Request: fold
Amino acid sequence: MKIAGIEVGERPLILAPMEDVTNPPFRKFCKMYGADWLYSEFVSADALVRSVNKSVKKLTIDEGERPVTIQIYGRFIDSMVEAARIVEQVRPDFIDINFGCPVKRVAQKGAGAGLLRDIPLMVEMARQVVRAVGIPVTAKTRLGWDSEHIIIGDIAERLQDVGIQALAIHGRTRAQMYTGEADWEPIARVKENPRIRIPILGNGDITSPQRAKEAFDRYGVDGVMIGRATIGKPWIFRQIKHYFETGELLPDLSVREQLEVIKEQIRLSVEWIDEVRGLLHMRRHMAAMFKGLPHFRDLRIRMLQAPNLETLWEVFDEIAEKYGEEAGV
Reply:
């Protein structure tokens, strides 16, 4: 499948944008394990315009990541336009507008999912960002603000009409945050709409190869975004592709193999930031690993509380010695 002439793969598996997760070190591993299309963390337009170093650093991309998207968010059209022009200079394949982040500090200020309460502003923002840059612009949003306002059908048509090249839809409302089950039926209705010509990407609760296959086969989406299920498990992309090709479920990596993966992620994270913050950043990935191992509680606590690399490597050695070739879960 191509979007604005850019190949993103047939039935692409896409790494969803996640704050404090989808940085360059993590994206590298997702790409290595088969992700077809990568998204950055979301980047504040206001912070980019002010040249805030932390936000500017989020624009770092590597040629090996392509196709890669940088996602921006904001509540003011002028700053979004200026931010898009800044992003264009680092040459991502796509710029994405975040119309879906539900967290209070974003949505309640009128950005992200907050724009679901002001559709004319959302559409005009998309229109002006599209006009401001020479690379394709996509968008990601939710079904609506709450269950009383499932308006994704109208949103999809209007965003398409102002030049959005692909639309990713998370199957929850803003009010749901990340609770309950994602509802893919409204996503399917958008895809079935004869007026919709742009690719529709589905997002929400893709936690297994079976769920990914259902997204394509039952709901007809053009691509599937995978978010939280990748944390601590970037090889889920390889498992899904294996299932698509063979109909068989590929087992998880062994504990020893998982340790080698996470150690390299940690090394890159420390190199990307520094040792203290790099370890803090990786705790959520480590916390997602080895949940089914018996009698693991004490080692888990020590692993997550390790103050430096030396201590952490010692804990990893103990885990490898104790659980070795067991399948990680």
Notes: The longest helix spans residues 255-272. Residues 3 and 165 are 7 Å apart (CA to CA). The chain has a mean pLDDT of 95. The chain is about 45% helix and 15% strand.
